[in-house]
Design brief:
Number of helices: 6
CATH class of the largest domain: Alpha Beta
Strand order of the largest sheet: 1-2-4-5-6-3-9-12-11-10-8-7
Shape: globular
Order of helices and strands: HEEHEEEEHHEHEHEEEE
Distance between the termini: 52 Å
Largest sheet: 12 strands, antiparallel
Length: 291
Amino acid sequence: MSAAMHELLAILDLEKLEHNLFRGRSPKLDWQRVFGGQTIAQALVAAQRTVGPERQVHSLHGYFMRPGDTKVPIIYEVDRIRDGGSFTTRRVVAVQHGQAIFSLEASFQGDEGGLEHQAPMPLDVPPPESLLDQRQLIGQFGDSVPEGIRRYWERDRPIEMKPVMLKHYTSREKLEPRQNIWIRTSGPVPADRGTQAAVLAYLSDMTLLDTSTFAHGRAIFDPDIQAASLDHAMWFHRRHPMDSWLLYSQDSPSTQGGRGFTRGAIYAQDGTLIASVAQEGLIRLRHPPAA
């Protein structure tokens, strides 16, 4: 297990302070703000700690309100909204410096049988074994990768990624706003369903917002773009071991009003649709082009 993966599992083990009150921390890294996926995952863990093991998360909806401070703990306060006959609902507010930075609502359900279908995994995607990882891409393409993306790829992370399409990273060509990217953890994930759901929520925030810039020949790390996640929704469809590569298939139906909207589907290598994601984020030009 990589050190980054070990640290991810450590920060997901929240400290209980009081009934419905938990404390989380950030990795000891030089990040300017808390990674959104971390806040989603930790808030989900806080909610899970107040729900019995017979019910698992099936959906979550979160709003980002302020950038998180990596230097101080995050306090997660859980509101036990409802414990129903079939569903359990929780609201979580993440607080730093006396102010809310993130809110999440999550719904939990016990396993049930019933009607079932799923959208198929894209067929025209090469297997991950045939693709380069991020560090290999830096070695092969060197200076053709923008500095912001290169710095992002060089960081030690608990998640490994292999993008299928490279044009977005090596050119400013206007592209169809969709991408497929293989993604996996850099070490094993414990088998308990709560931890697996939290790790899946963590990685679901990666690369998604960037897809909304493809149609404009831009990248989320461009110096004249102000980018930040605004909200995040996720639906957990099927349980599946997280012990291999996952395909994150993404598209962006709309960018307007300084906001980009993106969708994602997460598949296991055997084609099982594990989860669906939707996110809107700030994609604001710092210096709008002249008319």
